[in-house]
Amino acid sequence: MVAALSCTQLLLLLRAEPPLPSSAANTTNITQDAQLRWPSCEGQEEMLNLGFTIGSFVLSATTLPLGIFMDRFGPRPTRLVGSTCFAASCTLMALASRDTQVLSPLIFLALSLNGFGGICLTFSSLTLPNMFGNLRSTVMALMIGSYASSAITFPGIKLIYDAGVSFMVIMFTWSGLACLIFLNCALNWPSEAFPSPEEGSYTKKIKLTGLALDHKVTGDRFYTHVVNVGQRLSQRAPSMEEDDISSQDTRGTSGKPREKSVPFRKSLCSPIFLWSLLTMGITQLRVIFYMAAMNKMLEFIVTGGQKHETVALKQRAEETVGFYSSVFGAMQLLCLLTCPLIGYLMDWRIKDCVDNPTEGMALDDARDGIATKSVRPRYRKIQKLTNAINAFTLTNILLVAFGITCLINNLHLQFVTFVLHTIVRGFYHSACGGLYAAVFPSNHFGTLTGLQSLISAVFALLQQPLFIVMVGRLKGNPFWVNLGLLLFSLLGFLLPSYLFYYRARLQREHTTDWEGPLKALSNSEVTA
Protein backbone atom coordinates (compact mmCIF):
# COMPACT_ATOMS: atom_id res chain seq x y z
CA MET A 1 0.00 0.00 0.00
CA VAL A 2 2.82 2.41 0.86
CA ALA A 3 4.57 1.54 -2.38
CA ALA A 4 1.47 2.31 -4.43
CA LEU A 5 0.92 5.56 -2.59
CA SER A 6 4.51 6.63 -3.07
CA CYS A 7 4.51 5.97 -6.79
CA THR A 8 1.32 7.96 -7.28
CA GLN A 9 2.38 10.97 -5.26
CA LEU A 10 5.93 11.06 -6.56
CA LEU A 11 4.72 10.95 -10.14
CA LEU A 12 2.57 13.96 -9.35
CA LEU A 13 5.61 15.70 -7.89
CA LEU A 14 7.74 14.80 -10.88
CA ARG A 15 5.19 16.35 -13.19
CA ALA A 16 5.19 19.61 -11.21
CA GLU A 17 8.06 21.13 -13.20
CA PRO A 18 8.33 24.73 -14.40
CA PRO A 19 6.76 25.15 -17.85
CA LEU A 20 8.90 25.90 -20.86
CA PRO A 21 8.49 29.13 -22.83
CA SER A 22 5.86 28.90 -25.53
CA SER A 23 8.30 28.89 -28.45
CA ALA A 24 10.56 26.35 -26.79
CA ALA A 25 7.56 24.22 -25.87
CA ASN A 26 6.28 24.23 -29.45
CA THR A 27 9.70 23.31 -30.81
CA THR A 28 10.07 20.57 -28.25
CA ASN A 29 6.62 19.15 -29.00
CA ILE A 30 7.31 19.06 -32.74
CA THR A 31 10.68 17.37 -32.20
CA GLN A 32 9.21 14.83 -29.80
CA ASP A 33 6.28 14.04 -32.11
CA ALA A 34 8.72 13.46 -34.95
CA GLN A 35 11.10 11.25 -32.96
CA LEU A 36 8.78 9.38 -30.57
CA ARG A 37 6.00 7.05 -31.56
CA TRP A 38 3.91 6.14 -28.61
CA PRO A 39 2.59 2.58 -28.47
CA SER A 40 -1.12 1.96 -28.86
CA CYS A 41 -3.48 1.75 -25.88
CA GLU A 42 -3.49 -2.04 -26.14
CA GLY A 43 0.31 -2.08 -26.11
CA GLN A 44 0.44 0.16 -23.06
CA GLU A 45 -2.13 -2.00 -21.24
CA GLU A 46 -0.11 -5.12 -22.01
CA MET A 47 3.06 -3.46 -20.68
CA LEU A 48 1.30 -2.36 -17.50
CA ASN A 49 -0.12 -5.85 -17.02
CA LEU A 50 3.34 -7.32 -17.59
CA GLY A 51 4.71 -5.07 -14.85
CA PHE A 52 1.89 -6.14 -12.54
CA THR A 53 2.63 -9.81 -13.32
CA ILE A 54 6.36 -9.49 -12.69
CA GLY A 55 5.81 -7.54 -9.48
CA SER A 56 3.34 -10.11 -8.15
CA PHE A 57 5.69 -12.95 -9.04
CA VAL A 58 8.71 -11.37 -7.37
CA LEU A 59 6.72 -10.58 -4.24
CA SER A 60 5.42 -14.15 -3.96
CA ALA A 61 8.75 -15.77 -4.91
CA THR A 62 10.52 -13.89 -2.13
CA THR A 63 8.60 -15.88 0.48
CA LEU A 64 10.56 -19.10 -0.23
CA PRO A 65 14.00 -17.85 0.92
CA LEU A 66 12.26 -15.99 3.71
CA GLY A 67 10.55 -19.19 4.83
CA ILE A 68 13.84 -21.10 4.84
CA PHE A 69 15.52 -18.28 6.76
CA MET A 70 12.70 -18.10 9.29
CA ASP A 71 12.64 -21.86 9.88
CA ARG A 72 16.40 -21.77 10.45
CA PHE A 73 16.77 -18.68 12.64
CA GLY A 74 13.24 -18.00 13.87
CA PRO A 75 10.83 -15.12 13.17
CA ARG A 76 12.65 -12.52 15.29
CA PRO A 77 15.62 -11.86 12.93
CA THR A 78 13.23 -11.87 9.97
CA ARG A 79 11.05 -9.26 11.61
CA LEU A 80 14.00 -7.10 12.62
CA VAL A 81 15.35 -7.10 9.06
CA GLY A 82 11.89 -6.41 7.65
CA SER A 83 11.19 -3.44 9.92
CA THR A 84 14.64 -2.00 9.17
CA CYS A 85 14.12 -2.25 5.41
CA PHE A 86 10.63 -0.78 5.70
CA ALA A 87 11.83 2.20 7.74
CA ALA A 88 14.70 2.77 5.30
CA SER A 89 12.35 2.66 2.31
CA CYS A 90 10.03 5.28 3.79
CA THR A 91 12.99 7.51 4.60
CA LEU A 92 14.33 7.21 1.03
CA MET A 93 10.91 8.09 -0.38
CA ALA A 94 10.76 11.18 1.79
CA LEU A 95 14.25 12.25 0.68
CA ALA A 96 13.48 11.60 -2.97
CA SER A 97 10.41 13.82 -2.81
CA ARG A 98 12.58 16.70 -1.55
CA ASP A 99 14.36 17.07 -4.90
CA THR A 100 12.70 14.88 -7.51
CA GLN A 101 14.95 15.90 -10.42
CA VAL A 102 18.12 14.78 -8.63
CA LEU A 103 16.99 12.10 -6.16
CA SER A 104 14.24 10.41 -8.15
CA PRO A 105 16.43 7.30 -8.88
CA LEU A 106 16.18 6.51 -5.17
CA ILE A 107 12.57 5.50 -5.80
CA PHE A 108 13.59 2.16 -7.31
CA LEU A 109 15.72 1.26 -4.30
CA ALA A 110 13.02 2.51 -1.93
CA LEU A 111 10.28 0.46 -3.54
CA SER A 112 12.47 -2.65 -3.52
CA LEU A 113 13.17 -2.24 0.20
CA ASN A 114 9.49 -1.45 0.79
CA GLY A 115 8.26 -4.66 -0.82
CA PHE A 116 10.92 -6.82 0.84
CA GLY A 117 10.39 -5.29 4.27
CA GLY A 118 6.62 -5.58 4.02
CA ILE A 119 6.67 -9.27 3.11
CA CYS A 120 9.16 -9.93 5.96
CA LEU A 121 6.82 -8.32 8.48
CA THR A 122 3.80 -10.16 7.12
CA PHE A 123 5.51 -13.53 6.91
CA SER A 124 7.03 -13.39 10.39
CA SER A 125 3.61 -12.56 11.85
CA LEU A 126 2.17 -15.90 10.70
CA THR A 127 3.95 -17.76 13.53
CA LEU A 128 2.43 -15.57 16.25
CA PRO A 129 -0.98 -17.38 16.27
CA ASN A 130 0.73 -20.45 17.79
CA MET A 131 0.45 -18.65 21.13
CA PHE A 132 -3.36 -18.84 21.02
CA GLY A 133 -3.71 -22.63 21.20
CA ASN A 134 -7.10 -23.82 19.95
CA LEU A 135 -7.82 -20.40 18.39
CA ARG A 136 -4.70 -20.50 16.25
CA SER A 137 -6.43 -20.64 12.87
CA THR A 138 -8.86 -17.87 13.81
CA VAL A 139 -6.06 -15.51 14.82
CA MET A 140 -4.06 -16.41 11.71
CA ALA A 141 -7.07 -15.70 9.50
CA LEU A 142 -7.53 -12.36 11.24
CA MET A 143 -3.92 -11.42 10.52
CA ILE A 144 -4.16 -12.51 6.88
CA GLY A 145 -7.39 -10.53 6.55
CA SER A 146 -5.73 -7.41 7.93
CA TYR A 147 -2.92 -7.81 5.41
CA ALA A 148 -5.33 -8.38 2.51
CA SER A 149 -7.46 -5.37 3.45
CA SER A 150 -4.54 -3.01 4.05
CA ALA A 151 -5.17 -1.29 0.72
CA ILE A 152 -8.17 0.42 2.33
CA THR A 153 -5.73 2.78 4.06
CA PHE A 154 -4.76 4.29 0.70
CA PRO A 155 -7.85 6.58 0.46
CA GLY A 156 -7.18 7.78 4.00
CA ILE A 157 -3.57 8.67 3.23
CA LYS A 158 -4.68 10.37 0.02
CA LEU A 159 -7.15 12.49 1.98
CA ILE A 160 -4.37 13.51 4.38
CA TYR A 161 -2.18 14.46 1.44
CA ASP A 162 -4.97 16.44 -0.23
CA ALA A 163 -5.59 18.25 3.05
CA GLY A 164 -2.17 19.86 2.78
CA VAL A 165 0.14 17.53 4.70
CA SER A 166 3.36 17.17 2.74
CA PHE A 167 4.40 13.82 1.33
CA MET A 168 7.71 14.05 3.22
CA VAL A 169 5.92 14.33 6.57
CA ILE A 170 3.73 11.31 5.74
CA MET A 171 6.74 9.16 4.83
CA PHE A 172 8.78 10.19 7.88
CA THR A 173 5.77 9.36 10.09
CA TRP A 174 5.53 5.97 8.46
CA SER A 175 9.24 5.43 9.02
CA GLY A 176 8.76 6.25 12.71
CA LEU A 177 6.02 3.62 12.97
CA ALA A 178 8.38 1.07 11.43
CA CYS A 179 10.97 1.98 14.08
CA LEU A 180 8.37 1.23 16.76
CA ILE A 181 7.84 -2.20 15.19
CA PHE A 182 11.60 -2.77 15.35
CA LEU A 183 11.69 -1.75 19.01
CA ASN A 184 8.72 -3.95 19.91
CA CYS A 185 10.31 -6.95 18.19
CA ALA A 186 13.68 -6.39 19.87
CA LEU A 187 12.12 -6.17 23.35
CA ASN A 188 9.16 -8.57 23.26
CA TRP A 189 9.70 -11.26 20.62
CA PRO A 190 11.53 -14.42 21.77
CA SER A 191 14.69 -15.56 20.07
CA GLU A 192 13.17 -18.99 19.34
CA ALA A 193 10.18 -19.75 17.15
CA PHE A 194 6.74 -20.07 18.72
CA PRO A 195 6.03 -23.82 19.15
CA SER A 196 2.71 -25.16 17.97
CA PRO A 197 0.22 -26.52 20.56
CA GLU A 198 0.73 -30.09 19.27
CA GLU A 199 4.43 -30.16 19.99
CA GLY A 200 5.67 -31.91 23.12
CA SER A 201 7.66 -28.92 24.36
CA TYR A 202 4.62 -26.67 24.27
CA THR A 203 2.38 -29.17 26.05
CA LYS A 204 5.05 -29.89 28.60
CA LYS A 205 5.48 -26.27 29.63
CA ILE A 206 1.77 -25.61 30.00
CA LYS A 207 0.82 -28.82 31.78
CA LEU A 208 3.78 -29.03 34.13
CA THR A 209 3.19 -25.44 35.24
CA GLY A 210 -0.39 -26.32 36.10
CA LEU A 211 0.78 -29.43 37.95
CA ALA A 212 3.27 -27.46 40.04
CA LEU A 213 0.54 -25.03 41.11
CA ASP A 214 -1.99 -27.69 42.01
CA HIS A 215 0.11 -30.52 43.40
CA LYS A 216 -1.43 -30.14 46.87
CA VAL A 217 -4.97 -30.43 45.58
CA THR A 218 -6.51 -33.87 46.05
CA GLY A 219 -9.14 -35.56 43.94
CA ASP A 220 -10.16 -35.28 40.33
CA ARG A 221 -8.25 -32.20 39.35
CA PHE A 222 -4.94 -33.54 40.55
CA TYR A 223 -5.46 -36.86 38.79
CA THR A 224 -6.44 -35.18 35.53
CA HIS A 225 -3.25 -33.14 35.47
CA VAL A 226 -1.12 -36.21 36.12
CA VAL A 227 -2.79 -38.18 33.33
CA ASN A 228 -2.57 -35.36 30.81
CA VAL A 229 1.11 -34.75 31.40
CA GLY A 230 2.10 -38.39 31.47
CA GLN A 231 0.11 -39.53 28.47
CA ARG A 232 0.72 -36.63 26.09
CA LEU A 233 4.44 -36.48 26.75
CA SER A 234 4.82 -40.24 26.51
CA GLN A 235 2.99 -40.27 23.18
CA ARG A 236 4.70 -37.31 21.53
CA ALA A 237 8.11 -36.86 23.11
CA PRO A 238 9.00 -39.67 25.50
CA SER A 239 12.68 -38.72 25.51
CA MET A 240 11.87 -35.28 26.91
CA GLU A 241 10.02 -36.81 29.82
CA GLU A 242 12.90 -39.20 30.52
CA ASP A 243 15.40 -36.36 30.46
CA ASP A 244 13.43 -34.51 33.15
CA ILE A 245 13.15 -37.62 35.31
CA SER A 246 16.84 -38.37 35.00
CA SER A 247 17.75 -34.81 35.95
CA GLN A 248 15.64 -35.01 39.12
CA ASP A 249 16.66 -38.51 40.12
CA THR A 250 19.85 -38.58 42.24
CA ARG A 251 20.60 -42.12 41.19
CA GLY A 252 20.90 -40.95 37.56
CA THR A 253 19.72 -43.27 34.84
CA SER A 254 20.75 -42.92 31.25
CA GLY A 255 17.81 -41.74 29.13
CA LYS A 256 16.97 -42.97 25.69
CA PRO A 257 18.10 -40.96 22.68
CA ARG A 258 15.78 -38.21 21.60
CA GLU A 259 13.04 -39.05 19.17
CA LYS A 260 13.90 -37.93 15.66
CA SER A 261 11.89 -35.03 14.29
CA VAL A 262 9.83 -35.36 11.13
CA PRO A 263 12.16 -34.96 8.11
CA PHE A 264 11.33 -32.11 5.78
CA ARG A 265 11.31 -34.45 2.79
CA LYS A 266 8.35 -36.29 4.29
CA SER A 267 6.34 -33.09 4.61
CA LEU A 268 7.38 -31.93 1.14
CA CYS A 269 6.31 -35.16 -0.58
CA SER A 270 3.10 -35.65 1.39
CA PRO A 271 -0.06 -35.86 -0.76
CA ILE A 272 -1.75 -33.12 1.28
CA PHE A 273 0.97 -30.62 0.40
CA LEU A 274 1.08 -31.65 -3.27
CA TRP A 275 -2.69 -31.35 -3.69
CA SER A 276 -2.62 -28.01 -1.89
CA LEU A 277 -0.09 -26.74 -4.45
CA LEU A 278 -2.54 -27.49 -7.27
CA THR A 279 -5.50 -25.95 -5.45
CA MET A 280 -3.64 -22.81 -4.42
CA GLY A 281 -2.11 -22.36 -7.87
CA ILE A 282 -5.50 -22.53 -9.56
CA THR A 283 -7.07 -20.12 -7.09
CA GLN A 284 -4.15 -17.70 -7.32
CA LEU A 285 -4.36 -17.62 -11.12
CA ARG A 286 -8.11 -16.97 -10.97
CA VAL A 287 -7.81 -14.17 -8.43
CA ILE A 288 -4.79 -12.46 -10.02
CA PHE A 289 -6.24 -12.55 -13.53
CA TYR A 290 -9.40 -10.82 -12.39
CA MET A 291 -7.43 -8.12 -10.61
CA ALA A 292 -5.36 -7.51 -13.75
CA ALA A 293 -8.23 -7.60 -16.26
CA MET A 294 -11.06 -6.11 -14.19
CA ASN A 295 -10.96 -2.70 -15.90
CA LYS A 296 -11.07 -4.27 -19.38
CA MET A 297 -13.95 -6.52 -18.33
CA LEU A 298 -15.95 -3.58 -17.02
CA GLU A 299 -15.16 -1.60 -20.16
CA PHE A 300 -16.40 -4.44 -22.36
CA ILE A 301 -19.66 -4.63 -20.41
CA VAL A 302 -20.26 -0.92 -20.99
CA THR A 303 -19.15 -0.71 -24.64
CA GLY A 304 -20.17 -4.18 -25.80
CA GLY A 305 -16.94 -4.63 -27.75
CA GLN A 306 -14.46 -2.52 -29.68
CA LYS A 307 -16.48 -2.52 -32.90
CA HIS A 308 -19.33 -0.53 -31.36
CA GLU A 309 -17.30 2.08 -29.49
CA THR A 310 -18.07 5.78 -29.91
CA VAL A 311 -16.59 8.85 -28.27
CA ALA A 312 -19.54 9.24 -25.92
CA LEU A 313 -19.46 5.54 -25.10
CA LYS A 314 -15.75 5.67 -24.34
CA GLN A 315 -16.31 8.61 -22.01
CA ARG A 316 -19.08 6.74 -20.23
CA ALA A 317 -16.87 3.66 -19.98
CA GLU A 318 -14.06 5.64 -18.36
CA GLU A 319 -16.42 7.10 -15.76
CA THR A 320 -18.02 3.74 -15.04
CA VAL A 321 -14.68 1.94 -14.72
CA GLY A 322 -13.38 4.63 -12.38
CA PHE A 323 -16.44 4.38 -10.13
CA TYR A 324 -16.45 0.58 -10.00
CA SER A 325 -12.70 0.49 -9.38
CA SER A 326 -13.17 2.74 -6.36
CA VAL A 327 -15.94 0.48 -5.06
CA PHE A 328 -13.73 -2.56 -5.59
CA GLY A 329 -10.93 -0.94 -3.60
CA ALA A 330 -13.26 -0.02 -0.75
CA MET A 331 -14.59 -3.59 -0.61
CA GLN A 332 -11.14 -4.89 0.30
CA LEU A 333 -12.09 -4.11 3.89
CA LEU A 334 -14.33 -7.18 3.72
CA CYS A 335 -11.20 -9.33 3.98
CA LEU A 336 -10.76 -8.18 7.57
CA LEU A 337 -14.39 -8.98 8.36
CA THR A 338 -14.74 -12.33 6.60
CA CYS A 339 -11.35 -14.00 7.14
CA PRO A 340 -12.00 -14.78 10.84
CA LEU A 341 -15.03 -16.82 9.71
CA ILE A 342 -12.86 -19.32 7.85
CA GLY A 343 -10.42 -19.34 10.77
CA TYR A 344 -13.25 -20.10 13.19
CA LEU A 345 -14.32 -22.93 10.88
CA MET A 346 -10.77 -24.35 10.99
CA ASP A 347 -10.81 -24.22 14.83
CA TRP A 348 -14.29 -25.71 15.21
CA ARG A 349 -14.53 -28.03 18.28
CA ILE A 350 -10.76 -28.51 18.52
CA LYS A 351 -10.76 -27.89 22.27
CA ASP A 352 -13.16 -30.82 22.86
CA CYS A 353 -10.85 -33.36 21.23
CA VAL A 354 -8.28 -35.81 22.56
CA ASP A 355 -5.09 -37.16 21.02
CA ASN A 356 -5.49 -40.88 21.81
CA PRO A 357 -8.05 -43.29 23.28
CA THR A 358 -6.20 -43.67 26.59
CA GLU A 359 -6.33 -39.95 27.23
CA GLY A 360 -10.07 -39.86 26.64
CA MET A 361 -10.71 -42.76 29.02
CA ALA A 362 -8.45 -41.21 31.66
CA LEU A 363 -10.37 -37.98 31.54
CA ASP A 364 -13.60 -39.87 32.10
CA ASP A 365 -12.03 -41.71 35.02
CA ALA A 366 -10.93 -38.45 36.56
CA ARG A 367 -14.37 -36.89 36.30
CA ASP A 368 -16.70 -39.76 37.13
CA GLY A 369 -14.51 -42.43 38.65
CA ILE A 370 -15.78 -44.89 36.02
CA ALA A 371 -14.69 -45.17 32.39
CA THR A 372 -17.42 -44.25 29.96
CA LYS A 373 -17.69 -47.00 27.35
CA SER A 374 -20.53 -45.69 25.24
CA VAL A 375 -19.05 -42.30 24.32
CA ARG A 376 -16.49 -42.49 21.54
CA PRO A 377 -13.84 -39.76 21.89
CA ARG A 378 -13.39 -37.09 19.26
CA TYR A 379 -9.81 -37.17 17.98
CA ARG A 380 -7.97 -33.92 17.37
CA LYS A 381 -6.33 -34.92 14.09
CA ILE A 382 -9.58 -36.17 12.59
CA GLN A 383 -11.39 -33.02 13.69
CA LYS A 384 -8.72 -30.87 12.06
CA LEU A 385 -9.13 -32.77 8.80
CA THR A 386 -12.90 -32.35 9.01
CA ASN A 387 -12.54 -28.63 9.52
CA ALA A 388 -10.09 -28.37 6.61
CA ILE A 389 -12.50 -30.27 4.35
CA ASN A 390 -15.32 -27.88 5.23
CA ALA A 391 -13.10 -24.80 4.78
CA PHE A 392 -11.72 -25.75 1.37
CA THR A 393 -15.10 -26.99 0.14
CA LEU A 394 -16.71 -23.68 1.07
CA THR A 395 -13.87 -21.73 -0.55
CA ASN A 396 -14.11 -23.71 -3.79
CA ILE A 397 -17.88 -23.28 -3.92
CA LEU A 398 -17.45 -19.52 -3.59
CA LEU A 399 -14.72 -19.62 -6.26
CA VAL A 400 -17.06 -21.39 -8.68
CA ALA A 401 -19.84 -18.90 -7.90
CA PHE A 402 -17.36 -16.10 -8.58
CA GLY A 403 -16.49 -17.63 -11.94
CA ILE A 404 -20.17 -17.88 -12.87
CA THR A 405 -20.84 -14.22 -12.09
CA CYS A 406 -17.85 -13.26 -14.26
CA LEU A 407 -19.57 -14.89 -17.25
CA ILE A 408 -22.67 -12.71 -16.97
CA ASN A 409 -22.44 -9.30 -18.67
CA ASN A 410 -24.46 -7.38 -16.13
CA LEU A 411 -22.96 -4.25 -14.65
CA HIS A 412 -24.89 -4.34 -11.35
CA LEU A 413 -24.02 -7.99 -10.85
CA GLN A 414 -20.37 -6.99 -10.65
CA PHE A 415 -20.93 -5.81 -7.08
CA VAL A 416 -21.63 -9.45 -6.19
CA THR A 417 -18.50 -10.42 -8.14
CA PHE A 418 -16.47 -7.94 -6.09
CA VAL A 419 -17.76 -9.40 -2.82
CA LEU A 420 -17.05 -12.99 -3.89
CA HIS A 421 -13.57 -12.07 -5.13
CA THR A 422 -12.71 -10.37 -1.84
CA ILE A 423 -13.99 -13.27 0.26
CA VAL A 424 -12.20 -15.91 -1.80
CA ARG A 425 -8.97 -13.89 -1.74
CA GLY A 426 -8.94 -13.99 2.05
CA PHE A 427 -10.41 -17.45 2.50
CA TYR A 428 -7.95 -19.51 0.48
CA HIS A 429 -4.87 -17.97 2.12
CA SER A 430 -6.36 -18.42 5.59
CA ALA A 431 -7.49 -22.00 4.92
CA CYS A 432 -4.10 -22.98 3.52
CA GLY A 433 -2.21 -21.39 6.40
CA GLY A 434 -4.48 -23.10 8.91
CA LEU A 435 -4.03 -26.46 7.16
CA TYR A 436 -0.23 -26.21 7.15
CA ALA A 437 -0.16 -25.13 10.79
CA ALA A 438 -2.43 -28.02 11.79
CA VAL A 439 -0.86 -30.84 9.76
CA PHE A 440 2.86 -30.09 9.46
CA PRO A 441 5.52 -29.38 12.15
CA SER A 442 6.02 -25.75 13.05
CA ASN A 443 9.67 -25.80 11.93
CA HIS A 444 8.46 -26.66 8.39
CA PHE A 445 5.74 -24.02 8.23
CA GLY A 446 7.82 -21.19 6.78
CA THR A 447 9.52 -23.23 4.07
CA LEU A 448 6.32 -24.99 3.00
CA THR A 449 4.37 -21.73 2.92
CA GLY A 450 7.13 -20.03 0.92
CA LEU A 451 7.32 -22.90 -1.56
CA GLN A 452 3.56 -22.88 -1.97
CA SER A 453 3.64 -19.14 -2.58
CA LEU A 454 6.37 -19.59 -5.21
CA ILE A 455 4.46 -22.33 -7.06
CA SER A 456 1.31 -20.20 -6.94
CA ALA A 457 3.28 -17.29 -8.41
CA VAL A 458 4.40 -19.53 -11.28
CA PHE A 459 0.74 -20.38 -11.95
CA ALA A 460 -0.11 -16.66 -11.82
CA LEU A 461 2.37 -15.97 -14.64
CA LEU A 462 -0.14 -17.58 -17.00
CA GLN A 463 -2.45 -14.60 -16.59
CA GLN A 464 -0.18 -12.49 -18.84
CA PRO A 465 -0.73 -14.60 -22.01
CA LEU A 466 -4.41 -14.92 -21.09
CA PHE A 467 -4.68 -11.15 -20.88
CA ILE A 468 -2.92 -10.74 -24.26
CA VAL A 469 -5.33 -13.22 -25.85
CA MET A 470 -8.34 -11.45 -24.36
CA VAL A 471 -7.24 -7.97 -25.45
CA GLY A 472 -5.95 -9.04 -28.87
CA ARG A 473 -7.53 -12.08 -30.47
CA LEU A 474 -10.81 -11.92 -28.53
CA LYS A 475 -11.19 -8.14 -29.01
CA GLY A 476 -11.65 -7.52 -25.29
CA ASN A 477 -14.31 -10.21 -24.81
CA PRO A 478 -13.46 -12.07 -21.56
CA PHE A 479 -16.14 -14.78 -21.88
CA TRP A 480 -14.01 -17.63 -23.21
CA VAL A 481 -11.11 -16.94 -20.87
CA ASN A 482 -13.46 -16.80 -17.87
CA LEU A 483 -15.16 -20.00 -19.00
CA GLY A 484 -11.82 -21.82 -19.24
CA LEU A 485 -10.78 -20.57 -15.81
CA LEU A 486 -14.14 -21.64 -14.37
CA LEU A 487 -13.67 -25.19 -15.64
CA PHE A 488 -10.07 -25.17 -14.46
CA SER A 489 -11.12 -24.06 -10.97
CA LEU A 490 -13.20 -27.23 -10.54
CA LEU A 491 -9.91 -29.06 -9.97
CA GLY A 492 -9.75 -27.30 -6.62
CA PHE A 493 -12.19 -29.86 -5.22
CA LEU A 494 -9.47 -32.53 -5.48
CA LEU A 495 -7.83 -31.36 -2.24
CA PRO A 496 -10.93 -31.71 -0.02
CA SER A 497 -11.65 -35.01 -1.79
CA TYR A 498 -8.26 -36.38 -0.80
CA LEU A 499 -8.66 -35.02 2.73
CA PHE A 500 -12.00 -36.87 2.92
CA TYR A 501 -10.29 -40.12 1.86
CA TYR A 502 -7.43 -39.59 4.30
CA ARG A 503 -9.85 -38.85 7.14
CA ALA A 504 -11.79 -42.07 6.45
CA ARG A 505 -8.56 -44.06 6.67
CA LEU A 506 -7.64 -42.45 9.98
CA GLN A 507 -11.12 -43.10 11.34
CA ARG A 508 -10.73 -46.81 10.65
CA GLU A 509 -7.37 -46.82 12.44
CA HIS A 510 -8.70 -44.94 15.46
CA THR A 511 -11.71 -47.26 15.66
CA THR A 512 -9.33 -50.17 16.14
CA ASP A 513 -7.34 -48.23 18.73
CA TRP A 514 -10.54 -47.39 20.63
CA GLU A 515 -11.80 -50.97 20.74
CA GLY A 516 -8.50 -52.24 22.16
CA PRO A 517 -8.64 -50.37 25.51
CA LEU A 518 -12.34 -51.20 25.91
CA LYS A 519 -11.69 -54.93 25.54
CA ALA A 520 -8.85 -54.76 28.03
CA LEU A 521 -11.06 -52.83 30.45
CA SER A 522 -13.93 -55.32 30.14
CA ASN A 523 -11.55 -58.25 30.75
CA SER A 524 -10.22 -56.61 33.91
CA GLU A 525 -13.75 -56.02 35.19
CA VAL A 526 -14.67 -59.68 34.61
CA THR A 527 -11.54 -60.79 36.45
CA ALA A 528 -12.36 -58.50 39.36
UniProtKB/TrEMBL annotation:
<feature type="signal peptide">
    <location>
        <begin position="1"/>
        <end position="16"/>
    </location>
</feature>
<dbReference type="Pfam" id="PF07690">
    <property type="entry name" value="MFS_1"/>
</dbReference>
<feature type="region of interest" description="Disordered">
    <location>
        <begin position="235"/>
        <end position="262"/>
    </location>
</feature>
<dbReference type="InterPro" id="IPR011701">
    <property type="entry name" value="MFS"/>
</dbReference>
<keyword id="KW-1003">Cell membrane</keyword>
<keyword id="KW-0812">Transmembrane</keyword>
<keyword id="KW-0325">Glycoprotein</keyword>
<feature type="transmembrane region" description="Helical">
    <location>
        <begin position="479"/>
        <end position="501"/>
    </location>
</feature>
<feature type="transmembrane region" description="Helical">
    <location>
        <begin position="323"/>
        <end position="346"/>
    </location>
</feature>
<keyword id="KW-1133">Transmembrane helix</keyword>
<feature type="transmembrane region" description="Helical">
    <location>
        <begin position="140"/>
        <end position="161"/>
    </location>
</feature>
<feature type="transmembrane region" description="Helical">
    <location>
        <begin position="388"/>
        <end position="412"/>
    </location>
</feature>
<dbReference type="InterPro" id="IPR036259">
    <property type="entry name" value="MFS_trans_sf"/>
</dbReference>
<dbReference type="GO" id="GO:0015175">
    <property type="term" value="F:neutral L-amino acid transmembrane transporter activity"/>
</dbReference>
<keyword id="KW-0732">Signal</keyword>
<feature type="transmembrane region" description="Helical">
    <location>
        <begin position="451"/>
        <end position="473"/>
    </location>
</feature>
<feature type="transmembrane region" description="Helical">
    <location>
        <begin position="272"/>
        <end position="293"/>
    </location>
</feature>
<feature type="transmembrane region" description="Helical">
    <location>
        <begin position="418"/>
        <end position="439"/>
    </location>
</feature>
<dbReference type="GO" id="GO:0015179">
    <property type="term" value="F:L-amino acid transmembrane transporter activity"/>
</dbReference>
<feature type="transmembrane region" description="Helical">
    <location>
        <begin position="48"/>
        <end position="68"/>
    </location>
</feature>
<feature type="transmembrane region" description="Helical">
    <location>
        <begin position="167"/>
        <end position="187"/>
    </location>
</feature>
<feature type="transmembrane region" description="Helical">
    <location>
        <begin position="103"/>
        <end position="128"/>
    </location>
</feature>
<comment type="similarity">
    <text>Belongs to the SLC43A transporter (TC 2.A.1.44) family.</text>
</comment>
<keyword id="KW-0472">Membrane</keyword>
<dbReference type="GO" id="GO:0005886">
    <property type="term" value="C:plasma membrane"/>
</dbReference>
<protein>
    <recommendedName>
        <fullName>Large neutral amino acids transporter small subunit 3</fullName>
    </recommendedName>
</protein>
